[in-house]
Structure formats: C-alpha cells, structure tokens
Amino acid sequence: MEALAAGILQGSRRAVSQGISLVESSRLDHQLLAAKLVRALRRERREAAAQSGGPEPFRIGVSGPPGAGKSSLIEALGVELLRAGERVAVLAIDPSSESSGGAILGDKTRMPRLSASADAYVRPSPARGTLGGVARSTVDAISICEAAGYSKVLVETVGVGQSETAVQDLVDVFVLVLPPVGGDELQVVKRGIQELADIVVINKADGATKAAAARAAAAFKSTAYFHRQRRRSWQPTVLTCSAHSGLNIDKLQHQLADYQAAMVHSGELAQVRQHQHRRVAWTAAEEAVLDSFRQNENVKWLLARLMPDISTGELGPRAAAELLAAYHAMYD
C-alpha cells in the first residue's frame, strides 16, 4: 500500500489504475485495503495543499440522455483544458455487463485524443447496478485522481435513471448536455432536469442541426426564471456547442472557470462539499448494509426456500421482504 500510494502521489498512471481497480473490487479484503489507501492519500493531499496554498482540484459532472454527445463533448473540453495547462482525469461511468460485470460502452475508445495525452487519464468504470448509474467507488476514484495531481476531474454518468441527481453528490458543478431537440421532445427532456443543472449545453450546434440547437437553447433560457436558483453565487447558464467543430468549447471552459471562481470566492463551494460528504457517507452506509444483507448466508438460505412461492405470487414481495428482514435480525 505504501508503494502504491507513493506511485499515485508521483502521478503514475499505472498506479492510479491499480488504485482505482482496488476501490472498485467487491472483495472485503480489497475494500479494507482501499479504505486505508484512500485515507492515506487524502491526508497527504491535505498536507500538500496546506503547504502550497494552491487551488483545489475541480470536479465536473457531465450528464444527459444517450445520444447527446457527452463523450465527444468531454474530449473536446478536455483537450481545451490541456491547452490551458490543466491535468485532466475522466471517470466515465458505463452500464455494466450482466455476465462479466465490466463496463460495456468503452468510453476510452471514444476519447482517442484525450487518452493519448500524457497529462490526461481516462477510466471507464462499470456502474454495476448502483442507483443512478454513478458507481459507488467513484468518490474514492476521484480522490485518487486528485492525489495524482489531476486538477480537473470530469465524471460522466450513464445518463439514464437517476444519474442526474446522484452525480450531484460527487461534483462541484453539474453540466447537462442535451441534443438539439424541439417541440414535444424538448418538453420531455427539460421537465425536472434543468433545475438540477448549473450549465446547460445544447450540443451538435452545427450543420443541419444548428437551427434546432439555437431554438432549444432559446427555449431553455425562456424557462430558466421558473426554476428556483440552486446556488447563491451562480445563475444557471445555457449555451450551444459543437464537439465536432469545436464551436464554443472555449466559452464552456470560461464558464466553468467563472463558476469555480464565484463559488470559491463566496465560500459556497466549501459548504457544498461539506453537504456532499454527509450525503455520500450516508449513502455508502446504506449500500454497505444492503450488501451485508444480500451476502448473509441465513438470508440466502431463506430466500431460496421462499422463491417458489414468490415466483407464483402466493407470497407477495412486501411479505417476503419482511420475512427476510426478520430472519436476518433474528440470526445475524
């Protein structure tokens, strides 16, 4: 663990990959080692930050529906950040294979320019059924990337289910990427989502979809005042971009920088992170209890005997859950 921690602190991509693989492991012995590793890294990073007085690493969450071009936009933004002297890490939370448990979309193959840079690190991680498509180990993976010296950490979610809300507990800014839709499609997409976003990006704003992107951006801007402002220090913004042509990628970078500066200056960013730490700790505790419940031999024994009645409907789901919980409490 000491050698692995030293390699991560020196910025070794190999060590970073080994550390993230450790925190993603479901083995109990690996989880204990991962907890020890992350604690050591966080302690070292706090001490280094206290001595240097430099800016904290910035965490950017990127979400949106499938087909919006999230990966392409992340690569274009990542390349722009590299040009500005940043070191960039991308944690792409992919859907999981039911058979192997691994990530199946392979975002690394869709970010070739970013993956090839010595100052960038791209890691696809399997969601493994975690609520919202945000892997439970992502918060520790972020800590590893920050300890390795990556100043910007981008977290891309699956973009389905509750990933838009789950990612907020992990990042400093939430960027919602949308395709250039309109009419009824726009009503479906924007319902309940725009109010979560700090920056809304209408992607693919070039070629045949340029006009549709402009209309979608105008529609989002017109409804912005209906939503309660999430941040005291920041008014949500809407802009059109094209990951393909590079249109307005520099503007997106500047907006992210403006957001970071405003939130840091007001002290609100520190408050947001404190709230996130509490939420993540509680969620991790809930998931640990659920894992323990599922792996309990007594629970598995009773479930196997109840399953025929559950399958036929003779025993309802709620009754089965109550029986399992009572049995676990009695014999654990």
TrEMBL record:
InterPro entries for this protein: AAA+_ATPase (IPR003593), GTPase_ArgK (IPR005129), P-loop_NTPase (IPR027417)
SMART domains membership: AAA
Every AAA+ ATPase domain range: 56-262
GO CC terms of this entry: cytoplasm
GO molecular function: GTP binding; GTPase activity
A Pfam cross-reference name: MeaB
Family that this chain belongs to: Belongs to the SIMIBI class G3E GTPase family. ArgK/MeaB subfamily.
Protein name, as recorded: AAA+ ATPase domain-containing protein
